[in-house]
Design a protein that fits this description.
single chain; 135 residues; 5 helices; mainly alpha
Length: 135
């Protein structure tokens, strides 16, 4: 429905990487109120459009449910696991090693100090003329 929505193939790769809801791992617990795929599509919509949570279109699950799922996955490390697994799958599909063997750090983009450096923390000095004395 939206350009940010997952295709069936993308969902097939992503779905097994997402954890079952708490209490529902062994068939027990309360069933999901909203389809997990629609929650993920809503998250992708927010990322793609930059809209505010409360501005999610009404054909997605309620913004609060989507936001709570995002926070839960952020806090339990799901996003990191999913990113790692998808990166490894992509590298293997390209005939490369699953884990990168080299990393490049660009010194122009690695910030080492606050903007302004030491100049921003140096106290201003009064001129000799302003002091009225000469040393």
């Amino acid at each position: 429905m939206y350009p940010s929505d997952l295709s069936d193939g993308q969902w097939a790769r992503l779905e097994p990487l997402l954890k079952a809801p708490r209490g529902n791992r062994h068939g027990g617990g309360r069933p999901r109120k909203y389809a997990l795929r629609r929650v993920v599509d809503a998250l992708l919509y927010v990322v793609k459009t930059g809209c505010q949570w409360r501005q999610l279109p009404t054909d997605f699950p309620p913004w609060l449910s989507v936001h709570q799922q995002f926070r839960a996955w952020r806090d339990d490390g799901t996003w990191e696991r999913v990113t790692k697994a998808l990166r490894e799958q992509s590298r293997k599909a390209q005939g490369r090693n699953a884990a990168p063997s080299v990393a490049i750090v660009d010194s122009q983009s690695a910030k080492t100090a606050l903007k302004g450096g030491g100049a921003a923390t140096t106290r201003a000095r009064r001129s000799r003329a302003a002091r009225g004395t000469s040393r």
